[in-house]
Design goal:
By secondary structure, the protein is an all-alpha fold. It has four helices and two strands. Strand 1 and strand 2 form a beta hairpin. It is flat, with a radius of gyration of 35 Å. The C terminus is likely disordered.
């Protein structure tokens, strides 16, 4: 397969993929619109139930005369709201028609070789990473970490190099001696 043919196939596959993404996006937007309409319809139904309850309350208290037309109208509005919710729920639950399109993923031999070479280079990096136990915590509950002198990122106390920038840490003996020297004058003064 020539590079030109490969590029034409690639572009055709990319267009099909873009169409699929556009369709899925449209479906998501439509689904969100239906969900919003459902919430509005449910709020309307709740309002109609509340209105009917208020009418019945006033009739029972004697502050309103019973009017069957008013009650029937309220019940009709409730039924309309229930029907609207049912229609929206059916629309929401309706199966979506999606076209399944196979996108060719064939690559020229040079690209496959480059991918294989890149994979080979990354494998040793994964082997370098060792699982270390969780660092100890101090009396206040904070982790005790070793900070990188280069990028100032906190590292595990046993780390040999920075996890962020890869700067090697000085040996433990070198880092302890300045601390011991700093402690020595304090103990002499006491």
């Amino acid at each position: 397969m020539e590079v030109k043919d490969y590029m034409n196939d690639f572009l055709a596959g990319a267009k099909k993929l873009a169409d699929i993404v556009a369709n899925k996006t449209q479906e998501t937007v439509e689904s969100a619109k239906i969900e919003i309409e459902l919430r509005k319809a449910q709020a309307n139904l709740d309002k109609e139930y509340k209105t009917l309850g208020q009418i019945e309350y006033h009739i029972e208290k004697g502050t309103m005369n019973r009017d069957d037309e008013v009650i029937e109208a309220a019940c009709a509005r409730i039924q309309d709201a229930i029907d609207a919710i049912s229609a929206l729920q059916a629309k929401k639950d309706a199966p979506k028609e999606t076209a399944e399109v196979e996108v060719p993923v064939e690559a020229p031999e040079e690209a496959e070789e480059a991918v294989e070479e890149a994979g080979e280079e990354e494998e040793p990096a994964e082997e370098d990473e060792e699982e270390q136990p969780e660092p100890e915590k101090n009396d206040e509950g904070y982790f005790i970490l070793k900070f990188c002198p280069n990028c100032k990122v906190g590292n595990h106390p046993d780390a040999k190099k920075c996890v962020n920038c890869g700067t090697p840490f000085p040996e433990a003996e070198e880092t302890e001696s300045p601390a011991e020297e700093a402690e020595a004058p304090q103990s002499e003064e006491e």
